[in-house]
Amino acid sequence: MPISKHPISDEDIQVDAIDEYFPLQSGWALKENQKFGKKGGARMAKKIISLLQAFFHAGNANKSDRYSAHDMLDELNDMANKGELEFEIIPRLETIQNWIARYSSACKREMAEIVLQREEQRH
Questions:
Q1: Which of 25, 34, 85, 117 could form a disulfide with 80 if both were Cys (CB 3.0 to 4.6 A apart)?
Q2: pTM
Q3: Torsion sign (Cα): 68, 74, 79, 83
Q4: Could you give the CA distance from residue 25 to residue 12 in angstroms, rounded to a whole number?
Q5: What confidence tens digit (pLDDT) does each residue in 56-82 have?
Q6: Helices marked H in 22-92 — which ranges?
Q7: DSSP string for residues in 97-108
Q8: Half-sphere exposure of residue 83, counting CA atoms within 13 Å on the CB side?
């Protein structure tokens, strides 16, 4: 005579084994638990961004004063040596290069929109 009223099937044993030995928590694949999108990396300090913008626009105003990413990094390091900045907030060269690419693209897009608005106002 069985101990319980409901006999245990092979399927019940397999489900229990999966729950017991599966290494991930229940619900790990649910959409609300996914962590895609922003990688959560450190952001540049606002002071650094405003300095990079100033370097960038100085180059736009006068082509002979154009700063490369390396020049910008050197300038930031000089400011840190003078005590005007902390070394910890100075980004890496690659970060500055990526910032220049994104900022340049945003500036070009903004200028294109301004030109289109002016053309629309003329007509």
A1: 85
A2: 0.62
A3: positive
A4: 19
A5: 998 877 778 889 999 999 999 999 999
A6: 46-61, 69-81
A7: HHHHHHHHHHHH
A8: 0
